[in-house]
Design goal:
Butyryl-CoA Dehydrogenase, subunit A, domain 2; six-stranded mixed sheet; single chain; 2 domains; alpha+beta; Butyryl-CoA Dehydrogenase, subunit A, domain 3; binds flavin-adenine dinucleotide
């Protein structure tokens, strides 16, 4: 059954995870003020699925069960599903900055593909196990933390070569009824207030790394799990106009000999499929990141327009202000358009699901991850220095300074100075606070560092087709076109799995 935000918060009381924040053990996650903005952010994804105006985007029919599920837990079956998911992620992130749950969508879709591929190659039975798990997660409308990024230790070494094997999560022991895992996942968004973790490998592996190629589901309070997390957003800070209400915690998750029964294990030692899971999850996730940061861009565009108005300026009359706003819009809608293209040119998978086009998903994420810094610059450009220079909220009530500050820190006559101050603090929160840094770094590294995207773009882009085009134009059709493989090495097939139909000519 679909939960709302209040149900979700209450449901956290059924769990008793071992959580530390700022060096202190948390007694009750549901009641902890330091985690409140994160629970509220995740709550948006629950509440919006129940609002009639958002239901079409935020809920979907699951093909394998016929049931209505939250979009954030749905398996995509068509390019329309991908477009709706993209829009849904933008919607929840407009409201919350980051609602976390699209990571679960991306992991569930990636695991579905990898388990099917593994069963087809090795005769295992992971896919049916996973489908049973998926349906339970959807029926109970769970929040899933994505435990993929290992601590990794020395980056130049493979998992099996590390001095301390616990910098990667690995299988320590195989028992008749399940496996024992240990190791560390270093960055898990929303970790303290999830119901379960999906543990997944974070890189391609060699045969020697088989014990590290593990994918499984673990309840947050399974014996041996410890979560060491940061506060969510900027709880309790009066100046934090947005992130005192919404913001995500990130946590280190330590697995100290955790038992996982077989029905919750979806890969165990299959290194090739482990690598495939990493890249298929990454493609889904980069597509979602595009939607997420478009929602963040919407907040900057809106706050920028309000700041300009409060400053007494008019973009129609002041060309450089309009240009900065148009540049901001160009960046946001430019990378979002790549998300749309990735949805339209999706590829069908043997599991029955669809995956966003790899090149467009990676190009969009790459544009977003580097241009996030330009987004902040443009927002600062139109706003002025007040966003960091404005005295703190305590001054608003200081009888000795409040009136004189209000008299001189106003802008346009019909915009109260208190309103200008509110927008300036909102802008500071999103672009110049430590929470603003969080949005920059998640944009840059979340879903993989820029190098990971560049590798995928180069691996998948049909450069040889472009070469053939130029050779033909040069009248040098020297290659055997019948045997040409049009993709880079490592690509599954020559043409892509779903070639879009050309529009029919008008009758
Ligand atoms: C706010 C935030 C939230 C996140 N949430 C989640 C989450 O919920 N779940 C999750 O699993 N992950 C999450 N991530 C992790 C994210 O996927 C990683 O940050 C990303 O994959 C990069 O890994 P890293 O941080 O370990 O950086 P590193 O891998 O250390 O990368 C640092 C730099 O070193 C380079 N580098 C690394 N290894 C090599 C190498 N072998 N050779 C050459 N260059 C190398 C990289 O290209 C990069 O430029 C989150 C990240 C952030 C910032």
């Amino acid at each position: 059954m679909l939960m709302n935000a209040a149900d979700y918060r209450e449901s956290l009381r059924r769990y008793n995870p071992r959580v530390f924040v700022n060096g202190k053990r948390i007694d009750s996650v549901a009641d902890e003020p330091l985690l409140k903005p994160g629970i509220a952010g995740v709550g948006v994804s629950y509440d919006f699925a129940q609002l009639p105006q958002h239901a079409a985007l935020m809920a979907a029919r699951q093909g394998t069960s016929g049931k209505i599920v939250n979009r954030m837990l749905h398996i995509d079956e068509s390019s329309t599903d991908l477009l709706y998911k993209l829009e849904a992620v933008r919607l929840v992130c407009q409201e919350s900055g980051c609602a976390q749950r699209y990571l679960a969508h991306d992991a569930l879709n990636g695991i579905l593909q990898a388990t099917k591929r593994c069963d087809d190659a090795h005769g295992t039975d992971y896919h049916q196990r996973f489908l049973a798990y998926l349906h339970r997660v959807q029926d109970e409308d769970l929040a899933l933390g994505i435990a993929m990024t290992d601590a990794k230790g020395d980056r130049s070494k493979h998992p099996g070569e590390q001095a301390n094997p616990d910098v990667y999560v690995h299988v320590k022991e195989r028992r008749p009824d399940g496996i024992i895992i240990r190791g560390t996942k270093a960055i898990v968004t929303g970790a303290p207030y999830m119901h379960e973790f999906l543990v997944m490998p974070c890189r391609t592996m060699t045969k020697e790394d088989a014990d590290f190629a593990v994918c499984c589901a673990v309840p947050v309070d399974a014996p041996g799990v410890t979560i060491v997390a940061k506060p969510a957003g900027r709880p309790g800070e009066a100046a934090a106009k947005f992130s005192a209400k919404y913001g995500q915690s990130v946590g280190v998750v330590i697995f100290d000999d955790v038992f996982v029964p077989h029905e919750r294990v979806f890969l165990d030692g299959e290194t090739e499929e482990g690598g495939y899971l990493t890249t298929s999850y990454a493609t889904h996730h980069r597509h979602s990141c595009i939607g997420a940061r478009a929602g963040f861009g919407d907040l900057l565009i809106g706050a920028g327009a309000l700041m300009i108005e409060a400053n007494g300026l008019d973009p129609d009359r002041h060309g450089h202000i309009r240009d900065s706003m148009v540049d901001l819009i160009k960046i946001v809608e430019g990378f979002f358009a790549c998300g749309v293209a990735a949805s339209v040119y999706c590829m069908k998978d043997a599991s029955g699901s669809v995956m966003p086009d790899t090149v467009f998903a990676n190009v969009g994420k790459l544009l977003m991850s580097t241009q996030i810094y330009d987004m902040h610059r443009l927002a600062h450009q139109v706003s002025g220095g007040l966003v960091v220079a404005l005295p703190g909220p305590d001054e608003d009530h200081n009888p000795e300074t409040a009136a004189s500050l209000a008299a001189v820190l106003g802008g346009r006559a019909n915009v109260p100075s208190a309103q200008r101050a509110e927008v300036a603090r909102f802008m500071e929160d999103l672009t110049a606070s430590h929470q603003a840094g969080w949005y920059s770094v998640i944009s840059l590294h979340g879903g993989g560092s820029p190098e990971a995207m560049k590798r995928e773009i180069w691996r998948n882009y049909p450069v040889t087709d472009r070469v053939a085009l130029v050779e033909r134009l040069l009248d040098r059709d020297v290659l055997d076109r019948g045997q040409r493989v049009s993709k880079q090495p490592g690509r599954c097939c020559a043409t892509g799995c779903e070639v879009p139909e050309l529009p029919a000519a008008a009758e």
